[in-house]
Amino acid sequence: MRLDKLLAHTGYGTRKSVQKLLKEGVVTVNGKVAKKGSDKVDPKVDEVVIFDEMVHYQKYYYIMLNKPQGIISATEDAVHETVIDWLGPEFWHIDLFPVGRLDKDTTGLLLITNNGQLAHQLLSPRKKVTKRYQALVSGIVDEEDIRRFEEGLDLGDFITQPAKLTVVDVRQALEQTWIEVEIVEGKFHQVKRMFEAVDKEVLELHRLSMGPLVLDDELLEGDFRLLTPQEMEKLKPYGLIEE
């Protein structure tokens, strides 16, 4: 790839600011001062150094975020803070995006990456990637609700795929139920709309997993980290082709 593209991708500024650094003679490739951004380099073979520091190139990034309430699952927004804003300037030079969306008030697992192939595979309806949620619901969830979720619910604009609904705890006095639900779709407000279809309201919603990726229970709400090699290995069947 071009040298200026490599340096911009690894966080050394825009193409224009990288050109300035090259003119200052602070960049070397395999021990020789590099002056032209158009010079071709192989990040896996060539030794690129700037300010006496080795440049480490990484094509794809995979970040697990325990999304907090109040931020939106988007790359940019004129009004609201986004999950990309939340990551901070350390990652702003990378074209990251969230894989799917969680509502503004929904918390939990959100994968953020710049690997479009992986995102497409995880979100494709044909792949039927399971998303598992925990929710607090108003009303007492009963066997009839479980049956209707299993059969698929008519939400007006579409009929849901069969979903697995499990009762975790019942608060009889408050007429509330803690549940877990597994769906293979991820349409707009889908879990909330499914419970509305059985005359119940979702009060809290938290995503626990997406496909083979499970939210790290040591990640506090708002915390994030890079995926581990073991987690990345589990994603390979979905299109994780390189780091």
From TrEMBL:
Cellular compartments per GO CC: cytosol
CDD domains: PseudoU_synth_RsuA, S4
InterPro entries: PsdUridine_s_RsuA/RluB/E/F_cat, PsdUridine_synth_cat_dom_sf, PsdUridine_synth_RsuA/RluA, PsdUridine_synth_RsuA/RluB/E/F, PsdUridine_synth_RsuA/RluB_CS, RsuA_PseudoU_synthase, S4_RNA-bd, S4_RNA-bd_sf
Domain RNA-binding S4: 1-69
Keyword RNA-binding appears in the UniProt entry: yes
Cross-referenced Pfam families: PseudoU_synth_2, S4
GO biological process terms on file: enzyme-directed rRNA pseudouridine synthesis
EC top class named in words: isomerase
SUPFAM superfamilies noted in UniProt: Alpha-L RNA-binding motif, Pseudouridine synthase
Stored SMART domains: S4
Molecular-function GO terms, alphabetical: RNA binding; rRNA pseudouridine synthase activity
Keywords (A to Z) from UniProt: Isomerase, RNA-binding
Record EC number: 5.4.99.-
Similarity comment: Belongs to the pseudouridine synthase RsuA family.
Protein name: Pseudouridine synthase
